[in-house]
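Fold it.
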Amino acid sequence: MRSIFFLANLFLIGILSNGCSKEQSYDAIARYELSRNERFDTLIYGIHFGMVYQDFYDYCFQMNQKGIFMPKPDESGVRTVLDGPFNAPVVLEFFPMAQVTDGPIVKLSATLRYKDFSFYDRRYSIENLAREAMLYFEQEYGGRKFIAVPQKDKLIKNYFVKLDGNRRVTLMPSPDGAALKIMFEDLSRVVNPMPLGIE
């Protein structure tokens, strides 16, 4: 039964991708955005590219004192609840990556899921989560809309990518259809950007 729901979700993800902007290929957009030499460092809740780890930890401690950030149960990252155009509460878990010890943050890896996710409730489908996440980041950041970047993976048809200047946000449906993996990358600084797939 679970596999039927997941296959239906993946089919709808393919339909959803038709609603993303396809006026230009990803490569053309990336060349243009990086040539602008305009920086977009904002990530989420005051976290930004360029923060060093100590600043990140200090900021997270302050946000924890306010009840906004909490540690993940295994203490491997930060957990918060996102406000925005979601039809049910969603939880975002994240942790930054630097290229050198205590260097500036150039990547932030995250996972977004419905708090009460169930394979048997259509409200929590991966296509709903992807659509609502794209709307959330488009409203928060402005700029370009997400585009669909085709994947070779038979289970995951597309990643969804938003690129503004140096900042790339990639939404990746998980293979089990329960969550979105998210990668925020500063393309002007990161040494090995995450490969996106085929176009």
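The helical segments are 2-17, 26-35, 53-65, 126-141.
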